[in-house]
Each structure stands twice: as structure tokens, then as C-alpha cells.
Amino acid sequence: MKKILAGLLFAAILAACASQPPVTLTIMTHDSFAASQSVVTAFEQANNVRLVFLKSGDAGAALNKAILTKDAPLADVFYGVDNTFLSRALDSGIYEPYASPLIATIPAEFQLDSQDRALPVDYGDVCINYDKAYFASKNLPIPATLEDLTNPLYKGLLVVENPSTSSTGLAFLLATVKKFGTAGYLEYWNSLRSNGVVVVDGWETAYYTNFSGSSGHGSQPLVVSYASSPAAEVVYATTKLTDSPTASMLGPGTCFRQIEFVGILKGTTHPALARKFVDFMLSQQFQEDMPLQMYVYPVDPTAKLPQEFIQYAQTASQPATLDPAVIAVNRDQWIADWTNTVLR
């Protein structure tokens, strides 16, 4: 009888737990965040949780929002800050440390925070993308170097993102700092300005409004985007393609290696679930879902890449990089000086 009663009690407890309404966990992200619904649902069902994704602009804008609201956080977890803005996020004190057991499989080159406040999730190369058809129709050589972009042949053909609001734009600015040095990068940008460079606030506008290669309606056949963007053009094409209509400039130093991170926001009322979500983003299931959702590479070296990504996405063999400590000390001044040079 005791065993029966115990069994009934256990069943009642399980039923009670199952009938509990799901807890809401809010994830602040940049506007480009995406995940398969089946993957999201799997996490929700396994943890009796409802995920809400709070898209908050480009990475720079999202970080600003997270910092401004840190005393009354809008979310439990923040995903999308990258290595160009990482020091600002860490210095602002928005994160709770969490050493996920899954970081053991992630290469050291991606682990930029020794205190485990921001954990690496993905990486990709910010490069100049070009519209193949435009250059073919104009019988115009494709630029191969950063210096080429100042040539009058390409006057008015390049659109870039503002580095003060866009992590993509900041990554490209850092590539020019690396290439031309602190004494020469402003002179380079002045040359771009004279050559009609177009500046917009974020990647979405640059790629989907200005760039001619994605919609066919933009005016600029050159855009600061990602080396994986050509794969997206094939996957999302309305008619089946055997080749991408776009490609990337991949010469030495023309691209900047970008790493994106996730962290638990201080003040979360669901710390245990927040840790589970961080683990989830580092799990093989999520890591293998990312390439065809956000067109980034997983930091887990065991994650398998989809065939479309292998065939059409690209990586730079010699991307530009800068020490995060150097970025931290100089970033704000570089942005301010860029603003005075390009937007004055």
C-alpha cells in the first residue's frame, strides 16, 4: 500500500509540474538573429519555458540599449555583442559570469573574456561583397584591395555602415586601421569620402536597400557585408541557382574577423534558465542550425556545416585582427575621428 501511495504521490507531482505555465525567458539580440523554430521549440519543451526574442537594432544599438537599461534589464540574456564592442560590454558590468561546461570544446582563439561573462557563439569575416552582374555588364575590373576602392573607377559604388551604430561598420573601420595604421586610416577614409562612399546606419539598410546585388534595386554594387553572404543569396533565391550572384573581396587584410558572444544579464530573475539557454547556444544542435539561419560559422569545431555553406560561403585566409585591448583603448576615439572625417 505504501508503494502504491508513493507512486500516486510521485505521479501527482509530475502532473502538477507538467501543468505549470511556462516561464518566459527574454533574449535580447541584434536584428539579424534567427533560429529554426524546431530548434527553439525543442528548448522550450525541454525546459517548460517560452522564449521571447527582443530584437534591438544592430549590435552596437542593441548594446547601447542593454547598457542604458542595466539597472532594470529588459531581458535575461544578451546575444550579439561582438569583439569590436566586447570591451564596452564588459566594462559596463551588464553580465553575470557563467563558465558553461561546453566552452571546453571551443578553441582558445575565440575565448576573449577570461572571466566568462561573454561566451563565444559564432564567427565570420566582414568583407566587401560585390555584385558580379554589375561589374560584368560594365566591363569593370573587380577591386582587389582596399586601396582600389579609392580609384575613380568606383566613384559612388561603395556603401558602408556607420561604425558608431553598426558592428559591421566598426569591423570594417578596424580593418582600415589595421591596414593603414593610426597615422594613415583617416587619410584613407578621406579618399573614400572624396570618391563618393555612401554611409548608412546599419547592415540591413546597406545590404537590402543600397546594395544592387541582393534586391537588384540598390545603387551600390559594393557593400560591407560578410564572406558568408554569397551563400545566403543562393539559399534564398526565388529561382534555383547554381552559382551565387555575389562574391567577396578576400585579399590579405581586406576582411576583419568578427566573433559574437552571449552572456547572462545581471538582474535576471531566471538565472538557472538563463544558464541553460547559454548552454543551448553552445550545444551541437544550435551550433549546426546557425550557418543557414544567420550565415555565421559555429565556434564548435565538431559542428557539421551544411553543404550549401561549404559550397558558397567563404572565409578570408588572412583576415585583419586587432587585440581587443587595443580596440578597447582606442575604439571611441577612432569612431569620433572617423565621424569628423567622413560625416562632417
How would you portray this structure in words?
The chain is of the alpha/beta class. It has 2 domains: 11-122 and 258-312, D-Maltodextrin-Binding Protein, domain 2, CATH 3.40.190; 124-256 and 315-342, Periplasmic binding protein-like II (D-Maltodextrin-Binding Protein, domain 2, 3-Layer(aba) Sandwich). The chain is 41% helix and 18% strand. It has helices spanning 2-19, 37-47, 59-68, 86-92, 132-137, 167-180, 185-194, 203-210, 212-215, 229-235, 271-282, 284-289, 291-294, 307-312, 324-342, and strands at residues 23-29, 49-55, 77-82, 95-96, 119-131, 158-161, 198-200, 222-226, 246-248, 256-265, 297-298. Helix 6 (167-180) crosses helix 7 (185-194) and helix 7 (185-194) packs parallel to helix 15 (324-342). The mean pLDDT is 92.
Short overview:
This protein is of the alpha/beta class and 344 residues long.
